[in-house]
Amino acid sequence: MRLRQYFSKMKGSTRGGPPRVSNAEILWSWIGAFLGIAGVAWGSSLFFEGHDIALMIGSFGATAVLLYGAPRSPLAQPRNLLGGHILSAAIGVLCWKLMSQHLWLAESMAVATAIAVMHGTRTLHPPGGATALIAVIGSGKIHNLGFWYVLFPATVGPIILLVVALLVNNIPKSRRYPEIWF
Fold it and tell me: CB neighbours of 13 closer than 8 A, spacing ≥ 6?
């Protein structure tokens, strides 16, 4: 009976799909994401072009989904945004430095440890898992940064995204950001 119960959980619930959002909500999500990612990209090209410092990483795309598409989510709040990326970046770099000779182990340890630490510090931010993984599987440019990766891009990038979220998400009456700071 327990096995049947276990597998029955995989059917999902009867709640239905996610609710539809208004066209205005879609537009504000688009505007926020465009401006947030553009801000990070512009800052990167303005200050870091020609240097071995990266300001844009793939996990910022997922962060944009949370900050501008689901700004009321607990996972999108400033504590989670900043703490999730910063802690995960440090864990990813540490795993790369200690276990790079066993890439599969460094990858899995970075993501699993980042999740555990984010849970423990109440900073769960799903893109943080990708930030940790990028520190391990990233290019030589990322690896050469070492612990500078925690600052550039994992702190500066989210700060830019946060500033844009504060400005854009509070323009329409239907939005409010943040729900909580810490």
Answer: none
